[in-house]
Amino acid sequence: MRDWETLGGVDPCQLADARLQLHWMAQAASAVGKRLLPHQPDYGEQSFQWSAGLRAFVQAPVEAARPFRAGLRPSPPALLLAGDGDEILRELPLEDRTLEDAFVWMSEQIEELLGRPLAQPLERPGELPRHSVSEANAFAEIARYFANADRLLRQVRDENPGASPVRCWPHHFDIATLITLDAAADAESARSIGVGLSLGDERFSEPYFYVLPWPAPKGDLSELAGGGWWHTEGWTGAVLEASRFTGAPNQARQVEDFLSSAVVACRRLLRG
């Protein structure tokens, strides 16, 4: 893949704190779409898409005299309010800021841009962390992960008819596309394949690419390319952790091979 940004300058297992800080701060940007954008059945109004020009996640535009998009830039970490293009209208650097600072700033700035008070306050999450933001190298590495994943997942989307736009979801703070294989009266029973990147979670302490078939398959799990493997505890899906490819001579090719083989395997399983 062209334009791949080399990863591994920071140990993948040393990104957890920076990832958690960004995850929390993403809630302040996500709350704007939740309050001001039209509701979508999949709650897409709260999601983000990666802007290569801004190197940031941004939401859909909010209607105003000067339309704006709420966003989060991983490096250097900042909350953004951007225009229709790559113009930054407002910016809050996040070093030494709490989540409460972020919500107060975001509320004040969007009221200014709207020219009116918010009818209801932005919705806060239940717990507010009190740590500051200070790990420059880790945040720069996270930005590279997201930039690479966005390019790869757009490629996956283009190669698979029926795939959704590539989005970052604030709840899990992962970036993904969903390949819908068929329609169903009940959306929960529709066959689909989720393809994405998680920066880590309670099961994995490092970033990992994943390919998740739905419903969970029952057939034999075939061997995967690129060093990927099948996770089967709690959920079934193909996984490739960052530590398995950051030392490779061609990182992009290894991840591409993994994703391609995993999507093919999931299609086969779901046909069975």
Structure description:
The chain is 30% helix and 20% strand. The protein is α+β, with helices and mostly antiparallel strands and 272 residues long. The chain has two domains: 12-114, no CATH class; 136-271, no CATH class. α1 packs parallel to α2. The model has no long low-confidence stretch (mean pLDDT 93).
| Count of alpha and pi helical runs | 4
Described by its quaternary structure, the protein is single chain
State the low-pLDDT regions, or none. none
Structural class: alpha+beta
Q: Give the neighbour order of strands across the main sheet.
A: 6-7-8-9-11-10
Main sheet characteristics = 6 strands, antiparallel
Provide the helix percentage: 25-40%
Secondary structure blueprint with pairings:
Elements: H1 16-36, E1 49-51, E2 56-58, E3 69-73, E4 78-82, E5 88-93, H2 99-114, H3 136-159, E6 167-169, E7 174-180, E8 192-198, E9 208-214, E10 229-231, E11 237-241, H4 251-271
Antiparallel strand pairs: 1-2, 2-3, 3-4, 4-5, 6-7, 7-8, 8-9, 9-11, 10-11
Keywords:
4 helices, alpha+beta, five-stranded antiparallel sheet, 272 residues
Short synopsis of the structure:
This protein is 30% helix and 20% strand. The chain is of the alpha+beta class and 272 residues long. The protein folds into 2 domains: 12-114, no CATH class; 136-271, no CATH class.
